[in-house]
Design goal:
5-stranded antiparallel sheet; 6 helices; alpha+beta
């Protein structure tokens, strides 16, 4: 499988703070420090590289327990099937796919990850997949709480016996009851 071909950086040493940087060294830095889960899979959907944050997410202690494995080897079947469904679309269509992955972590809480999988294309052929995943649990929970609060406010306004509405600081109508 042709997957990644390393080339020497063409960026000047002044921009990177080093003499002759190698792409794999840059990838190591990114994979070591990224707050997101990052993986590269080959065209057979085997993990070829992964970020430091991905290792505990996959329930492993070291990359050696991940490299060469597929999602079915690492995750419960429901999660693995969802990952493979979208990865197969990336391979087939050569387009980026985004989906939400829900899983229970060590803290026994449900976490939601926004997963973006993009094709790696060489010579007009998809040779692998780059996946970036971010924990969006807090943002989704806040959105749900805000929607719930807004619905309660709307209920309160609608049950008011008189005209009731809310305007912003510039006098623009934001929300009102059925009489407004």
């Amino acid at each position: 499988d042709e997957f990644l071909r390393y080339k020497y950086c063409k960026t000047s040493a002044a921009n990177l703070g080093c003499g002759s940087c190698h792409v794999d060294a840059l990838l190591d830095i990114i994979f070591e420090n990224s707050p997101d889960l990052i993986t590269f899979k080959d065209s057979k959907l085997r993990y070829a590289m992964c970020s430091k944050k991905f290792i505990p997410f996959a329930g492993r202690k070291d990359t050696s327990e991940i490299i060469g494995k597929t999602p079915k080897d690492l995750f419960p079947s429901e999660q693995a099937n969802l990952i493979l469904k979208f990865n197969n679309l990336v391979l087939k269509e050569g387009t980026t796919q985004t989906f939400l992955l829900t899983c229970n972590m060590d803290d026994e809480l449900e976490h939601k990850y926004e997963v973006i999988s993009a094709p790696i294309i060489s010579n007009n052929e998809v040779v692998g997949i780059l996946t970036l995943s971010r924990d969006v649990t807090d943002a989704l929970n806040l959105n749900e709480a805000l929607a719930f609060s807004n619905s309660k406010l709307q209920d309160l306004l609608n049950n008011s016996p008189m005209l009731a509405y809310i305007i912003d600081t510039e006098g623009n109508f934001l929300l009102g009851n059925d009489r407004a």
